[in-house]
Specification:
There is one protein chain. The protein is mainly α. The chain has one domain: Orthogonal Bundle (MetI-like fold). The chain has 13 helices and no strands. Helix 1 crosses helix 13, helix 4 crosses helix 12 and helix 10 packs antiparallel against helix 13. This is Putative aldouronate transport system permease protein. It holds the Pfam family BPD_transp_1. It is found in: Cell membrane. One of its GO terms (biological process) is transmembrane transport.
């Protein structure tokens, strides 16, 4: 091993301190939300500065959140959008990526047209008219799935990953009599599971965090996803559906702790899923991001 010089040691020390500070700055907001969600409402409202531990451990905020029927209907709708939306995303993105990874006459013009949509779009009003008036998907969960079935960026990543597969595999499958769909679903996708896992993560997180399209197209509260319910609580300060008692309804602190508890309830599920996909993440991104 090479002997480190004094300047190397100083650099490593400074670099380590800066990275540690970055980790603290990144994790503290989440830690603050956790501590605040378990804190006593009145003491939390009176506190200023850093929050290092809960003030008077209390589960009252979580009880109020879980008593809210909109939370469970939001979870139901979000999971429906997450599951069926991600399946639709993977299916159509894989079809497009496989087709664009093969050599054919109009491949380049089609790719240019697809990339064009990354920089220019029809705008909000044409999108609303298309979904609501022409496709007749207004006030339905399909409005949150079909218009976002393919992400151009994810399509490019998956196409690049498919292009990296040896052409001999495709040719040998064709010689054995396999069709294009058989090649895609029996050979290409099984050999590209790291990038498929990345697509699941990208699309899944996008569906989980999405609220704007729901606000735009949905009118029935029974169809609201969880993030739209969260927006009402955090941005519009609407906690009327939390079934607060008369003695507590006027306490601003209770409303504040409810906001933190709602954030935790809406965030924890996606955090539990991520570790199962993390081991594929770096490999999948590298495979799909480098073109030979």
């Amino acid at each position: 091993m090479m002997k480190l010089t004094v300047s190397d040691r100083v650099f490593n020390l400074v670099n380590g301190i800066l990275m540690l500070l970055l980790v603290v700055l990144t994790l503290y907001p989440f830690y603050h939300v956790i501590m605040a969600s378990f804190s006593d409402s009145n003491r939390l409202l009176a506190h200023q500065g850093l929050l290092l531990k809960p003030f008077g451990f209390s589960l009252a905020a979580y009880e109020r959140v879980l008593d809210n029927p909109n939370i469970f209907s939001g979870y139901r709708n979000t999971f429906i959008i997450l599951i069926f939306g991600t399946l639709a995303n993977l299916f159509f993105t894989a079809l497009g990526a496989y087709g664009l990874s093969r050599n054919f006459l109009l491949r380049k013009p089609i790719m240019i047209a697809i990339i064009f949509t990354m920089y220019f779009s029809g705008g909000l009003i044409p999108t609303y008219l298309l979904v609501n008036n022409w496709l007749h998907m207004g006030n339905s969960l399909l409005a949150l799935i079909v218009p976002v079935a393919i992400s151009t960026w994810n399509l490019i990543i998956m196409r690049t990953s498919f292009e990296a597969l040896p052409e001999s595999l495709i040719e040998s499958a064709k010689i054995d009599g396999s069709g294009e769909f058989g090649i895609l679903f029996r050979i290409v996708i099984p050999l590209s599971m790291p990038v498929v896992a990345v697509m699941i993560l990208y699309y899944g997180v996008a569906h989980w965090n999405s609220w704007f399209n729901a606000m735009l197209f949905l009118r029935s509260r029974d169809l609201f996803p969880l993030q739209l319910i969260l927006r009402e609580i955090l941005v519009l300060n609407d906690t009327n559906s939390m079934q607060l008692g008369d003695a507590m309804a006027d306490q601003e602190g209770v409303r504040e702790s409810i906001k933190y508890a709602t954030i935790m309830v809406a965030t924890v599920p996606i955090l539990l899923i991520y570790p199962f996909l993390q081991r594929f993440f770096a490999k999948g991104v590298m495979i799909g991001a480098v073109k030979e």
